[in-house]
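Tutorial, part two.
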Amino acid sequence: MKRLTLLSTIIFFSLSGFSQSTKTDTDTSYSVNMKDVYVRAKWKNDTARYQYNQMRYYVTTVLPYVNAATALFKEIKAKSDDDNISRRERRQFINNKEAEVKKQFEDKIDALNTTQGVLLVKLIARQTELNIYKILYEFKNPLVAVKWQAWARLHGLNLDKKYRPEDENYLELIMADLGYPLPAGYAMSE
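Running the prediction step on this input gives:
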């Protein structure tokens, strides 16, 4: 039965034009070029499916803010890495950018729920490859970083935790599905 199935598969591909044959001295080898297939897992139960769909909705909600934060981070990083800029100009540039972001996004970010805020922090850490504590420490000052870390710890979040893709399976599936592959700085350990 297995041979019949294998034989019928080979015949199907040879008749349908998907196969290519290469003739060498005495052997003929067949190769098949097929389209990529994405397989989605079946859900264990309705609760798991609901949690995935809810997280996907939340991720799509916070994704514009993540993109804006990542672009802003790159802009500030490029400006602060410039050797021709003084410390005062650097601080003034950062404060001006902070004021622009507050003016543009403060009311929208205040409207996010706690889960969306946690996802926002995780996704910014994922995209920048730094934890939020280090970003605050580097661009603002250590006191600001400690203040926000204390606030986050009171609310059950750790800003000093590095993003680990292996701990966030649903989040990684969602981000890959939305076209945001894992940044190169992460090495998936499987």
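The chain has a mean pLDDT of 81. In part three we will examine how such features are distributed along the chain.
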